[in-house]
Design brief:
The complex is a heterodimer of chains A (72) and B (627). Chain A has 72 residues and is of the alpha+beta class. Chain A has helices at residues 12-24, 50-64, and strands spanning 2-8, 28-34, 39-44, 69-71. Classes of the chains: A alpha+beta (72), B alpha+beta (627).
Chain lengths: 72, 627
């Protein structure tokens, strides 16, 4: 399952870091962060609980880039 | 400017003024140090905080950490020597100015580019019980009649049921000449209604309408990252730590070497200063920001010109295209039958066409239709009597009292008319009036007026080979191929054969060469997806083409392929310029820094300056009008 989220991040490198961090989160199969359109597409693993996974994703992203926001 | 940017700007101004003020203050020692700490914290507190959090979260090597270490180090040296604090603060100040500029410029260009692509209609006018109501396009059901006033965007695909107008399709096709629309014609969402009120019966839901499809495609496009982008992301991952370790080595190794091996003065302060300079240069911002921005601008510019690119990777690949394979019908030719000419006639062309159109007035055959279309005037049925269709041969009729026969060779033979066979390729319609041969009309698939030009331009821009594939007869293929000037052609191909031909070309090409296939999306979807780049043209409203292709041309002009290649070449050139320029300046500064030639001032200017230039350069990719 794929979902698209609006994000807020200031620098392109930070967007890359968010992508890395999201990919490493359990329950996430793949992720693409688009700095230009300020969107992130997350592909979830089969049977993953989207809400809790996204909470974890946000936590991990905050670790690598304090100044980011994901709207879900 | 958003809130964050305003706040940052205020901090920049305050600390800059504090610095100027302190410069004239005659204080010394500890007091001076403490006073200078004020502007330092004003400008740098968030960086220090982020650096600290980074360490806590074990994400050490980021630009915040680098800036924190560099400036704290510089402050420490200044305290030790009771020297100049301005350098450390200035580094932080300029770094923040750079951040501010980046955020502002990128935000602004992002908005500009998005605005270019923003063809999303906000509402649809629906008439309910005599009242016109504005509703969300999402809520309009198929078959609803919507009203589009002059100046409004057509929100949903549909058919005009009332009114006539001209519509501006430029947002979708890049074509600036408005199209005339009247009752019964299809209109496509995203076009702007220019002159008259239109009532449109919707044929699709908003989600399925052209405008939604196009928007989805464009918004997703920069998610497919190009090789250059991936290269830079990887590079940034190694570059920053590498520079940090080199900085550490630079601070420690030379002094120890001098102290132990040479027995001289280690000059710790000087080496540490050089190492700190290293750190300032180590931020990969310029590279990381400018590459995706260039692609984004390129894709934005292209979509404004009616070329939809589904991903940065395709824009990148397009510039390396060496082989272009075309489908014939609908791509290089119009794909509709049209009168190509009237030959061997003594009477005027118009008169021949008029008689032919009158005789064929009762037929619904595509060829009859094309003759009537070429005639172009209203047909006065009262002039025609006794229409007889002779199946497989043609038509005879009495027109204005004359016996007219319109048809093929067999028909001419049967009435003993002395016909002249034709060697042009196409369908030949002979005409005899009162038994006397009056010439023939040639009906063929018309080659697009720009096809020949487009092929020669492609050759000029370095395309190695152009190939035409078609299911049509070999004679037709040969004729069209020679007319247009493609290098090779293959006729009588079934769809599966086309895939085979593409595979032949794919296996014969060089490793870095790209094969593009151009088709109109009608029954060539397998070929579109098999080629390195599938280009679908004339895709307004064709879902299949948009789905299967990597690049979609919104109108059916082959010159757009040339334009698309030019756009991609320009974009890629900018990307390489930025990579080359940024790397060159960075490495030059690193070397100068290691030898103590570059100081921190130069380092921060190199960092911020390169980024500003790279961002401005990236924006150039947006301007594609003249390509």
């Amino acid at each position: 399952m794929k979902k698209s989220y609006k994000i807020e991040v200031d620098c392109a490198n930070c967007a890359n870091k968010m992508e890395e961090a999201t990919k490493k989160t359990a329950g996430v199969a793949d992720c693409v962060v688009n700095f230009m359109t300020q969107k992130m597409k997350v592909e979830f693993e089969e049977g993953a609980d989207v809400d809790s996974v996204m909470k974890e994703v946000l936590k991990n992203c905050k670790k690598v880039e304090d100044d980011c926001e994901i709207y879900f | 400017m958003n809130k964050k940017q305003k706040k940052l700007l205020t901090r920049i101004i305050i600390s800059a003024m504090l610095m100027i003020g302190l410069y004239f203050m005659p204080v010394k020692g500890l007091v001076r140090f403490l006073l200078y700490l004020i502007p330092y914290f004003v400008i740098g507190y968030d960086i220090l905080k982020k650096a600290f959090k980074g360490i806590v979260n074990r994400q050490i090597f980021d630009e915040n950490f680098l800036m924190a270490v560099a400036t704290i180090g510089a402050m420490a040296i200044a305290v030790y020597e009771d020297g100049d604090y301005t350098e450390a603060i200035a580094v932080m100040l300029f770094y923040q100015i750079g951040e501010f500029f980046q955020s502002y410029a990128v935000g602004k260009s992002r908005k500009n580019i998005s605005a270019l692509m923003d063809i999303r209609p906000d509402y649809a006018n629906v008439e309910t019980e005599g009242q016109i109501e504005q509703v969300d396009p999402d809520e309009v059901e198929v078959g609803t009649v919507i009203i589009v006033n002059p100046g409004e965007k057509i929100p949903i695909d549909g058919v005009v049921v009332e009114g006539q107008s001209s519509v501006d399709t430029s947002a979708l096709t890049g074509e600036s000449v408005p199209r005339d629309i009247e009752k019964g014609e299809e209109v496509i969402s995203g076009c702007i209604n220019l002159s008259g009120v239109l009532k449109v019966k919707t044929t699709k839901e908003f989600e399925e309408s052209t405008v939604s499809k196009v928007l989805e495609l464009v918004e997703d496009s920069s998610s497919r990252k190009s090789k250059s982008e991936n290269f830079i992301s990887k590079f940034a991952k190694y570059y920053t730590p590498a520079v940090c370790y080199s900085a550490l080595a630079l601070a420690v190794l030379p002094p120890i070497f001098i102290l132990i091996v040479l027995g001289g003065n280690p000059m710790w302060g000087s080496w540490i200063y050089r190492a700190l300079t290293f750190l300032v240069i180590s931020c990969p911002c310029a590279l990381v920001i400018s590459i995706p921005l260039s692609f984004f601008a390129g894709i934005g510019g292209a979509s404004h010109a009616g070329v939809l690119v589904k991903g940065s990777n395709y824009l990148e690949a397009l510039a390396k295209t060496k082989y272009i394979v075309f489908d014939k019908t609908g791509t290089l030719t119009h794909g509709v039958f049209e009168v190509a000419g009237v030959h061997h006639n003594k009477k005027e062309d118009e008169l021949i066409l008029e008689y032919a159109a009158l005789a064929e007035s009762a037929s619904s055959h595509p060829i009859s239709k094309s003759i009537r279309r070429a005639y172009g005037k209203k047909i006065d049925l009262s002039r025609v009597k006794d229409i007889k269709e002779i199946s497989g041969n043609g038509v005879t009729a009495t027109i204005d009292g004359k016996q007219v026969a319109v048809g093929n060779d067999k028909l001419m033979k049967s009435i003993d008319a002395d016909y002249i066979p034709c060697h042009s390729v196409g369908t030949i319609i002979h005409i005899a009036i009162d038994g006397i041969y009056e010439g023939h009309i040639i009906i063929s698939d018309i080659i697009k007026s720009t096809s020949k030009d487009a092929i020669s331009k492609m050759k000029a821009m370095g395309i190695k080979q152009t190939t035409m594939l078609t299911g049509d007869a070999k004679a037709v293929a040969k004729n069209v191929a020679e007319e247009i000037g493609v290098d090779s052609y293959y006729g009588e191909l079934l769809p599966a054969d086309k895939v085979e031909k593409i595979e032949e070309i794919l296996s014969a090409k060089g490793a870095k060469e790209i094969v593009a296939f151009v088709g109109d999306g009608i029954n060539d979807a397998p070929v579109l997806s098999r080629a390195d780049i599938g280009i679908a043209m004339g895709a307004m409203g064709s879902d299949a083409a948009i789905e299967a292709a990597d690049i979609v041309l919104m109108d059916d002009n082959p010159m757009k392929i040339v334009k698309a290649i030019n756009i991609s070449k320009k974009c890629l050139r900018i990307v390489y310029e930025n990579i080359g320029f940024a790397l060159f300046v960075k490495f030059a500064c690193l070397i100068l820094g290691a030898f103590g030639i570059a100081n921190m001032w130069l380092a921060i200017f190199a960092d911020v300056g390169v980024m500003i230039i790279a961002v401005l350069n990236a924006i150039r990719a947006l301007f594609v009008e003249k390509l």
